[in-house]
Amino acid sequence: MSNQLTRRLALLDDDAHRSLLGQGLRGIERETLRVDQHGHLAHTPHPLALGSALTHPQITTDYAEALLEFITPAEHDIALTLHRLDTIHRFAYARLGGELLWSQSMPCELPPDSDIEIAWYGKSHIGMLKHVYRRGLALRYGKAMQCIAGIHYNYSLPEKLWQVLAVNEGVMEERRSALRDFQSESYIATIRNFRRHSWLLMYLFGASPVLNKSFLRDRPHNLEPLSDDTLYLPYATSLRMSDLGYQNDAQSGLRPHENSLESYVTSLMDAVNRPYEPYAALGTKKDGEWIQLSTNVLQIENEYYSTIRPKRVIRTGERPVQALCRRGVQYIEVRCMDVDPFEPVGISLEAGRFLDAFLLFCALEESPFISAADGQVHASNFARTVKEGRKPGLTLTKDGKEVPLVEWAMELIERIRPVAKLLDTQFDEPVHEASLAVQKAKVEDPSKTPSARVLDEVRALGSANKFGLQQSQLHAAWFRETALMPAEEAMFLEMASASLAEQAVIEQSDTGSFDDFVAKYNSSTLCGE
């Protein structure tokens, strides 16, 4: 352990501070495609019974109209977060009719692009802005990309914990702005450590080594055929997070600096304001209809597809980057987790426990600045793991040398162990250490990884689509077996009704033209505005 990690663990293990470990927040966003009974993409609109995709706080859509997104409230314990996620699934399933929720990150067999509907949010200015942004994504990346699903893990530590560390490390407690800056830069440091070590998450939790060939259309690739409709790589862990995912030439050179919040924001704002010639050739409108919000490298900052983001809850009319500038980083969003097709809600409690230990380790450990060359090494390690993570003898680059992935993974797990032990002081049993044992077993035996298990199942069934449908049907039976408690049912019905009413109010209160609304939105990109 480094001196900093040892010192911080000892500080937080003090009787006066130990309870802070249980006061952070965990939230999950789970994406999932709606499909029919045959495992084909649903072409029905977002079910009205679920509420408004524009305003519902827990049930919305992401890119495609059929791509549901379930958003849990933030909770102190991941076990409660997962219970919340389970109740959202049960409410949704009671209103999906004969439709199923797709069990995998990579999509089912897809129809032609022209038959994939882009998410619709109503006729209000803000609803149309969200829709046109997705039209731009379809233009830039293709509609198949809008059908990929993932698990986003939102993680924060309590402000009081950052204050304890700040005071211990010489930041004056009475200077509120200094504490805010310390917290923001500490989250940015956490992100740097995540960049160094996130390849481990892809080995342990990657679950997309195969895909249906309809996803690639006629794009060039180096995948191998597994069956008539299925492509794969024999040692892949997560094709979703490979170069087959949300990437293109415009974003290829975009590497936001994460050595400070200021440099991160500045680099993103540059991309939002920098024209990109191929997009400029397309324009923002075609036949009088908006086709993208701008012709710049990014339409908005969230178009930058990153495995992790610094976040701050935004206020009405505020852009994400403005919230970060004005009030600092509030939490981080981990975006690289595949949907686990063996888990009804897409992620297990054991995975959540490990993520908590992993992220706290990243937050407490020393985190030197990352040079451009360092960044390339970290990106290469990640890329090797998603495409070849289970390959016998695979090496990664560490401190300028090639080391076996297995050896480095074991070392990391042992470095995380003291953090897991500290977290377990909040529980009656060693749940975080138990999760470490499960992960260690995967390193010792690659056949226990989700990616290997998926590949075995797909080989047995002869098709990625058959496996996805099988798991989707199993999960549907699981959720439909037990109804919600009456109070939970009533709460979701009220949220659905209130969200529809709220959307109606927004649509009725709009003033001015949509063109003016977009122009105003595009101009409000700088901090302080």
Automatic annotation (TrEMBL):
Gene Ontology terms for molecular function: glutamate-cysteine ligase activity
Domain Glutamate--cysteine ligase span(s) in chain numbering? 10-383
Coiled coil location: none
Copy the pathway line from the protein's UniProt record.
Answer: Sulfur metabolism; glutathione biosynthesis; glutathione from L-cysteine and L-glutamate: step 1/2
Keywords, in A-Z order: ATP-binding, Glutathione biosynthesis, Ligase, Nucleotide-binding
Q: What is catalysed by this protein? A: L-cysteine + L-glutamate + ATP = gamma-L-glutamyl-L-cysteine + ADP + phosphate + H(+)
UniProt keyword tRNA-binding, yes or no: no
Q: What is its EC number?
A: 6.3.2.2
Q: State if ATP-binding is listed as a keyword.
A: yes
Which NCBIfam families does this entry report, sorted A to Z? glu_cys_ligase (TIGR01434)
Family the UniProt entry places it in: Belongs to the glutamate--cysteine ligase type 1 family. Type 1 subfamily.
Its recorded name reads Glutamate--cysteine ligase
Origin organism is Massilia solisilvae
Lineage runs:
Bacteria, Pseudomonadati, Pseudomonadota, Betaproteobacteria, Burkholderiales
